[in-house]
Design brief:
By secondary structure, the chain is mainly alpha-helical. It contains 23 helices and 3 strands.
């Protein structure tokens, strides 16, 4: 079997090598033309599934291979000689005489017009022309998106909003668009543009978190309803990731960990290594702040294990309870932690490290003085050691009593954990997690609207013969 696979792979590579650049460009333009035709079909049938399919394949397969020549051909074929066409030609850097060519007897639909402008916007961003991308995104929103209120434009508007924000972020003026994003969100809500609402909410949360405005981000999340049943998986993953970051800063670690786990489940499993890496990093820090140690298999995930190496060393210091090693790791990777926006949370781990070290001391000694504790945990004074011990006893981290007169703590006898309610709590937490996964899966199911009704058209289709039914299935396959 392996020999046959090698032969097939070699043949495909030989075919790819025999193609000339002109043939490859012709194949790419054929694909682009097919996607534009599907966008036109959305205008005629009012079904957004054709548009969603075109967006999915364009941005996943064709985006990185788009060139200005391919876009120019598409504009010449599908775009009449109007002001919008001249704007595209100017952004592509083409001569003015190219705009004289007109498409005879063809009118462009709003969906196709916005789709072509969106492709040009993405091409400008991929070409690192951030300033021109900002201008073009603002032109699309001002001249095109504000002129129409069509539900078939909702998926396109979501993409335009996203790349409008992305262009400003790369251009360095991310904070200036915040009032516009709020205005667009109000407009999307009034127009029942659910795709736009979901994307704009995530963009606003990203904007606030970019400038560390956690209180404003929390208020926005509390006062705004996230339409999870209408949101695609990627937007739901982004939302839960932003919400987890907000909860972590606000000291709600349990909620933060649950939201980060949701973000990981809704995101891709094997691809998007950058996304999986940053979400996993926050999840590791939050889990350590909860007093738990992440599983070792988490640091061996394929594709992200090298980026998690500093966090693995950090986890080892927390597990050992060594304050000196913790400070060494933080000093060594401080720049990386600041780049990942986890530095603030990493500094909070110092208390967790001290608490872990105190647990080991309490388990090893039946009686130990505050002087020895301060030396072992690298604390400044005995008063700090006494404060740490008192807080740990209050939090039930250790089972001991303090003798303030003599200046020592006395550890109580270890109690069998199975004689307490800890197993019950752990079992209850696991059951709650499984039920939450089940509820999310049920909510994610898609049912046809009013499927319980039996319309007359459905009754008529039952009487179709096999040939007519085969024709209908062929039409659906071609769609």
């Amino acid at each position: 079997m392996s020999g046959d696979g090698d032969v097939v792979m070699a043949d495909s590579q030989a075919v790819a090598e025999t193609k000339t650049p002109e043939e490859i460009e012709a194949l790419l333009y054929s694909d682009l033309r097919t996607y534009i035709t599907q966008v036109e079909r959305t205008s005629l049938t009012k079904e957004t599934r054709h548009l969603n399919r075109a967006l999915r394949y364009t941005f996943s397969k064709l985006r990185r291979r788009l060139t200005s020549d391919l876009l120019l051909k598409a504009v010449q074929e599908f775009y009449p000689s109007v002001d919008g066409r001249n704007v595209i030609l100017e952004k592509l850097g083409k001569k003015d005489e190219m705009a004289v060519e007109e498409t005879q007897g063809k009118e462009i639909t709003p969906e196709v017009e916005v789709f072509l402008h969106l492709l040009v916007l993405v091409h400008l961003l991929d070409s690192k022309k951030n300033a021109e991308a900002v201008q073009h995104a603002e032109w699309i929103l001002e001249h095109l998106m504000s002129a129409w209120n069509r539900r078939t434009l909702d998926p396109l508007s979501a993409k335009v909003y996203f790349y409008f924000s992305r262009a400003h972020e790369l251009n360095g003026d991310f904070s200036e668009i915040r009032p516009k994003l709020l205005q667009y969100q109000r407009t999307a809500t009034l127009r029942h543009n659910f795709d736009g609402q979901v994307v704009l909410l995530n963009l606003l949360l990203r904007n606030y978190l970019h400038y560390k405005l956690y209180d404003q981000a929390e208020k926005l999340a509390e006062k705004t309803e996230f339409l999870e049943h209408k949101a695609p998986s990627n937007e739901a993953a982004r939302y839960y990731f932003y919400l987890g970051r907000i909860n972590a800063v606000q000291l709600r670690y349990s909620d933060a960990f649950n939201n980060l786990q949701k973000a990981l489940r809704k995101g891709p499993r094997d691809s998007a290594n950058g996304w999986r890496s940053i979400v996993t990093k926050f999840s590791i820090i939050v889990q350590l702040l909860l007093g738990e140690i992440p599983e070792r298999s988490l640091f061996r995930a394929e594709g992200i294990k090298h980026s998690l190496l500093p966090y693995f060393q950090l986890t080892q210091t927390v597990r050992s309870g060594s304050v000196n090693e913790f400070h060494e790791v933080v000093a060594k990777y401080s720049d990386l932690f600041k780049k990942d926006n986890t530095y603030l949370l990493v500094l909070r781990l110092r208390h967790t490290v001290i608490k872990t070290g105190l647990k080991k001391i309490s388990a090893a000694y039946s009686r130990v003085s505050f002087t020895d504790i301060s030396k072992k945990l690298n604390l400044e004074s005995e008063v700090d050691a006494e404060y740490v011990v008192a807080k740990s006893i209050r939090d039930a981290s250790i089972d001991a009593t303090i003798d303030h007169t003599s200046g020592y703590i006395k550890s109580n006898d270890n109690v069998d954990v199975y004689a307490t309610d800890e197993p019950e709590k752990a079992f209850h937490a696991r059951i709650g997690f499984c039920l939450q996964v089940h509820n999310d899966a049920v909510k994610a199911m898609r049912y046809p609207p009013e499927s319980w009704k039996q319309t007359k058209e459905e009754d008529d289709t039952k009487d179709l013969n096999e040939e007519d039914l085969a024709d209908l299935l062929d039409d659906e396959d071609t769609d």
